[in-house]
């Protein structure tokens, strides 16, 4: 049996080796939740979904809150904050600027984004610690001074660390990363936000969220064979598309839930970010209890058991805004891509589709890991496949990269023999970090511009996302399938049907993958990379004024009280424009703490409708051409206001608020699009920008790149009001049309004061 062949070596360490200080500073407050829920039920007089219970259970004022799904705004009190290092820099710089002496809720920083994958874990971590020392020292010292825990480089990916230590059933946690919903696999309401939202919560201010709609996904049947939890979210992405979950929480329920592990449910919630969902959640069950026990949190499991019926599951008869049914008995292995995470194919058909679409059928690389699929179970299932070819003296035909989710996972899979199996077939185990998933990949096997295909177990596959090569066709699938494609080197292989040829000429089919849900011998803790903050602030935080990587913030100017007149169009973007297009990651990550330097990547990969080129726009006041940030700086220096015009679901993807900070810093006034992704629209509001949408999306076509834009109605900005856009064309003619916004009264104060941070400081 495969599971016997994968038996682990003996180990003396167990779950008790995980120090409680990592997660004992945010008490489980089921009593407070229950009181709020009783108040809300008395007011609404209807059954509540699970997500409603957790969200409304965290209301700042349940008795007076305006609760209308999809319409009203809620003031909430999250239990804790988590920040990854690339976004934590700007979040902590804003917190420092706020003047607050210490965070008001338990908070942590996780060093996971700044480590580039190239030569393997040890070498890459050493390089990262050298290159990023200034940033790590800043984050560590800020943590000590302001009361924030710090997980150093090597500890693992933020979402895996949160799942292992901080998430629990019913928690409300916000994180400065769009894949924070990973914690929904443990029954938490975990939401990705921008850094300014995190600052509000850390400062003790209620967090504002538009009351989410609820999409119910009913799972029946049972996962089996080659089908995995990843296939569930790949199918949901096919159904809802990249914007179908916007403004909603996706709530999974039904008997099919019982066939999934806790980490499998986390995978589904994690990739829910790719459908625009506010977050995703699963009801509390015995699989979550097993995970809590395994990770040293049995006391929380006891509390959850006692509150399972009332708080941690939906009420009978609860209604959803949309209902989706997936029969797991009928679900087949899927693979999504390229270039968008909602383009669904059956794994059995993707090879044929690739040939028809002229996509490269040859697979150059298979990559497993990332925050979406880097659990012990994921690694075990992939290793069970790798061992089958290792036993026959075979190696992978494509490159094969493995990124463990945490130091705990890494140490445990090394102890249990998985690492040796991966290495025996040509795999390279990278550091416990995001790596290639976010573009931190020093890839050597292809040249930029070379057309090729890769298959990953990641969550996103936007153009150039993983390796900065716009011709890399990225597909996302389960770790099992990514491993299969690394083994075979081709998309034209169906593991349920096709055979491999061993070196001796014998034919064989891969046996169904298998992996233990949790390590039978407990967790190997590995090296401790965590520093708990002192009870009182200690030390100083120093930012070198000459630094190229860190820069203290200067407050943005308040609104001038006038309508916007004769603004230039910096760029009219055509087609998909994600936060990767607006503020690229990869090599730019090193500037995430320096607003002026990071602004040099503003919209450099957005497609200009004028010439269908990237980073080539015109300064319409001088006739000079240049890169997008260069022309923006010219306009700013000359005192010329400018706007950006965009397409549908503008700003989808990451939570990075740099995509909102950069246009504000460079002198932008408004972003006018067909529709926004949730987090990006909020981030723009937080920084004093005007995010506006066409009342009629067809009006996008009335705008020419060289038009002058006037916005009237800004002086009368109010909830549900409209702004009139008048575009004056080069020939003297003009068009006028209405624009919508979603500002409420509080957010209008952000705009008038120049930013949410400015307004917060004005109220102190």
From TrEMBL:
Signal peptide: none annotated. Transmembrane segments: none annotated. Residues 568-696 form the Aconitase A/isopropylmalate dehydratase small subunit swivel domain. Its main location: mitochondrion. Binds 1 [4Fe-4S] cluster per subunit. The keyword Acetylation does not apply. Its cofactor is [4Fe-4S] cluster. One of its GO terms (molecular function) is 4 iron, 4 sulfur cluster binding. It comes from the Eukaryota. Pfam families: Aconitase (PF00330), Aconitase_C (PF00694). Pathway: Carbohydrate metabolism; tricarboxylic acid cycle; isocitrate from oxaloacetate: step 2/2. Residues 52-489 form the Aconitase/3-isopropylmalate dehydratase large subunit alpha/beta/alpha domain. Its EC number is 4.2.1.3. It is found in: Mitochondrion. Keywords: 4Fe-4S, Iron, Iron-sulfur, Lyase, Metal-binding, Mitochondrion, Transit peptide, Tricarboxylic acid cycle. GO terms for biological process: tricarboxylic acid cycle. Gene3D superfamilies: Aconitase, Domain 2, Aconitase, domain 3, Aconitase, domain 4. Belongs to the aconitase/IPM isomerase family. Catalyzes the isomerization of citrate to isocitrate via cis-aconitate. This is Aconitate hydratase, mitochondrial. It comes from Oikopleura dioica (Tunicate).
């Amino acid at each position: 049996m495969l599971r016997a062949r994968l038996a682990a070596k003996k180990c003396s360490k167990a779950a008790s080796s995980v120090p409680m200080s990592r997660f004992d500073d945010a008490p489980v407050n089921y009593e407070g939740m229950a009181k709020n829920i009783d108040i809300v039920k008395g007011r609404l007089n209807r059954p509540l979904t699970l997500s409603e219970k957790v969200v409304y259970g965290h209301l700042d004022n349940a008795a007076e809150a305006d609760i209308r799904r999809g319409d009203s705004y809620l003031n909430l009190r999250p239990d804790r904050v988590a920040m990854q290092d690339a976004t934590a820099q700007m979040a902590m710089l804003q917190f420092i600027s706020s003047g607050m002496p210490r965070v008001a809720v338990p908070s942590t920083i996780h060093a996971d984004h700044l480590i580039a994958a190239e030569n393997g874990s040890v070498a890459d971590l050493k390089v990262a610690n050298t290159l990023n020392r200034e940033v790590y020292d800043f984050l560590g010292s800020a943590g000590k001074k302001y009361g924030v825990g710090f997980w150093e480089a090597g500890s693992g990916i933020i979402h895996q660390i949160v799942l292992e230590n901080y998430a629990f059933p019913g928690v409300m946690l916000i994180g400065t990363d769009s894949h924070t919903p990973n914690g929904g696999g443990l029954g938490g309401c975990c939401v990705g936000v921008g850094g300014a939202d995190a600052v509000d919560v850390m400062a003790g201010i209620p967090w504002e969220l538009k009351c989410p709609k609820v999409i119910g996904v009913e799972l029946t049947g049972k996962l089996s064979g080659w089908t995995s939890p990843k296939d569930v979210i790949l199918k949901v992405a096919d159904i809802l598309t990249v914007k179908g979950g916007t403004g909603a929480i996706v709530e999974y329920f039904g008997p099919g839930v019982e066939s999934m592990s806790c980490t499998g449910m986390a995978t589904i919630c994690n990739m829910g970010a790719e459908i625009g969902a506010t977050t995703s959640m699963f009801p509390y069950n015995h699989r979550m209890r097993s995970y809590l026990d395994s990770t040293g949190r049995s006391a929380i499991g006891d509390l959850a058991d006692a509150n399972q019926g009332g708080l941690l599951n939906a009420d009978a008869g609860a209604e959803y805004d949309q209902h989706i049914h997936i029969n797991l008995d009928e679900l087949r292995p899927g693979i999504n891509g390229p270039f968008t995470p909602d383009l669904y194919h059956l794994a059995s058909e993707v090879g044929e589709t690739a040939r028809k679409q002229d996509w490269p059928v040859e697979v150059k690389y298979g990559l497993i890991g990332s925050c979406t699929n880097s659990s012990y179970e994921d690694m075990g299932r992939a290793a069970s496949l790798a061992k089958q070819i290792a036993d026959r003296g075979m190696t992978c035909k494509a490159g094969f990269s493995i990124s463990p989710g945490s130091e705990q996972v890494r140490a445990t899979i090394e102890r249990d023999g998985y690492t040796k199996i991966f290495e025996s077939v040509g795999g390279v185990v990278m550091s416990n970090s995001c790596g290639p998933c976010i573009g931190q990949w020093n890839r050597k096997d292809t040249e930029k511009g070379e057309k090729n295909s890769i298959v990953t177990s990641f969550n996103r596959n936007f153009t150039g996302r993983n390796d900065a090569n716009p011709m890399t066709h990225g597909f996302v699938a389960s770790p099992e399938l990514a491993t299969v494609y690394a083994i075979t080197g081709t998309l034209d292989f169906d593991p349920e049907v096709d055979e491999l040829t061993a070196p001796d000429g014998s034919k064989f089919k891969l046996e169904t993958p298998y992996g233990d849900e949790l390590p039978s011998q407990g967790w190997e803790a590995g090296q401790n990379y965590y520093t708990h903050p002192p009870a009182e602030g200690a030390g100083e935080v120093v930012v070198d004024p000459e630094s190229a990587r860190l820069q203290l913030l200067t407050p943005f100017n308040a609104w001038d009280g006038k309508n916007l007149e004769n603004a230039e169009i910096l760029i009219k973007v055509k087609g998909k424009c994600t936060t990767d297009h607006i503020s690229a990651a990869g090599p730019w990550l090193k500037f995430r703490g320096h607003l002026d330097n990071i602004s040099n990547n503003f919209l450099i990969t957005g497609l200009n409708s004028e010439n269908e080129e990237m980073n080539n726009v015109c300064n319409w006041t001088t006739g000079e051409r240049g890169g997008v940030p260069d022309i923006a700086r010219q306009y700013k220096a000359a005192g010329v206001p400018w706007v950006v015009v965009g397409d549908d679901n503008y700003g989808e993807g990451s939570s990075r608020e740099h995509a909102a900070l950069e246009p504000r810093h460079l002198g932008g006034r408004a972003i006018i699009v067909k529709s926004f992704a949730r987090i990006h629209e909020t981030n723009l509001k937080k920084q004093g920008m005007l995010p506006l949408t066409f009342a009629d999306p067809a009006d996008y076509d009335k705008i020419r790149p060289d038009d002058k834009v006037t916005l009237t109605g800004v002086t009368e900005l109010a909830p549900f009001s409209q702004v009139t856009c008048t575009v004056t064309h080069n020939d003297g003619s003009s068009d006028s049309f209405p624009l919508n916004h979603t500002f409420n009264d509080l957010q209008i104060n952000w705009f008038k004061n120049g930013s949410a941070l400015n307004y917060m400081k004005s109220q102190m």
